[in-house]
Amino acid sequence: MSRHYSVPAQSNQTLDLPIVTAAKKNPSRHVSTETPRRGPADPALGGISMVFPVHNESFIIEQTLRNYIAELGQRVEDLEIIVAEDGSTDDTKVVLERLEQELPIELYMSDERKGYQQAVKDAIAHATKPWLFIVDSDYQFAAIDFWRLEPYRRTYDVILGMKCPRKDPFYRVWLSYGFNFLLRILFHIPYRDMDTGFRLIRRSIAQEIAPTVQYMSFFTAEFVVRAHLAGFSIIEVPVHHYARKIGSTTIFFISSLFVICIRQFIGMIRLRQELIRAGLVQSPFKSHSPLTQQLNSEDSPPAV
Question: H-helix or E-strand containing 50?
């Protein structure tokens, strides 16, 4: 157990994997009816850093940590648990200070709110294992569903737990749908749940791409866009999603939705502009048709 306080500035078994689509237009949106095999995790694939970003979750964080540790603690041979507390104003700090005496967690706390994106990036920097399992701390995902993602470590770099179905208030469901639709249109990528809070990522890739994430507020969507365009393999795996058991969202208040939407849209446009300049996304004003290339050639001055 350790605490850190900061101020911001392969086995030989063969598995029958459920059919999951990656980079296809119509991925499966249903969780397999079969109970996943609950480990052990393949030690040949490397250890796992389980990362929990936390802000104002005093009523649920203990249940979240205890249940995930109970599920994975004895089934993942090389496991570390990183808790990245982000300037909570309720009793979250007090609860975590008590839990660090009882549970094998590494606790990093902040005096001020850094925001979800920076909190995740800072937590990634503290991880030491080859894989990152980054989980939202509000316990809307079941710990057992980790085992739906784990077998895909053999063949994929980024494994996204796709919420099926999403159990959030209707306005958040529609916002997420529109957000993911815009991402698919603007960046020509196929994924349907790029803002998921349940993801398994190679640490080497996260450390390479995370420092470049800067435009969108909630880390994962921009990370997925950049990872896809960098050529890394990504898959979406359907997992269960549950309504919050206690408390309410600490970010998506109805009164703040308009500002959040505007910021996210501006972030998408700025990211697109950067990627166009880098040649990773085609500009809508640039045509590569043979006719256009011929006209451009005819209009160009002769070489001297």
Answer: strand 48-54
Tens of pLDDT, residue by residue over 200-248, are: 999 999 999 999 999 988 899 999 999 999 999 999 999 999 988 775 5
- Bridge partners for 253 per DSSP: none
Are the C-beta atoms of residues 240 and 164 closer than 8 Å to each other? yes
The string of DSSP codes covering 223-273 is HHHHHHHTT--EEEEEE-----SSS--SS--GGGHHHHHHHHHHHHHHHHH
In the beta sheet, which residues pair with residue 57?
Answer: none
Residue 226 amino acid letter: R
**Distance in Å from the first CA to the final CA of the chain:** 71
Q: What is the pLDDT of residues 110-128, one digit of tens each?
A: 999 998 899 999 999 999 9
By the 8 A CB rule, do 151 and 234 touch?
A: no
* Crossing angle between the packed helical segments 61-72 and 92-99, to the nearest 10 degrees: 30
Q: What is the CATH architecture of 43-279?
A: Alpha-Beta Complex (3.90)
Under 8 Å between Cβ of 119 and 55: yes
Nearest Cα neighbor of 163 from 27, 54, 15, 24 is 27
State both tokens at 110: 């902040």
Domains of the chain, residue spans: 43-279
Residue type, 195: D
How many CB atoms within 10 Å of residue 243?
9
Q: Which pLDDT belongs to residue 31?
A: 87
Residue 26 has a pLDDT of 42
User: What sections of 102-246 are H helices per DSSP?
Assistant: 116-126, 146-149, 170-187, 203-209, 220-229
Q: How confident is the model at residue 3 (pLDDT cuts 50, 70, 90)?
A: low
Element housing 77 (H / E): none
Please tell me the total number of residues recorded for the chain in this structure. Answer: 304
Q: How far apart are CA 181 and CA 128, in angstroms?
A: 34
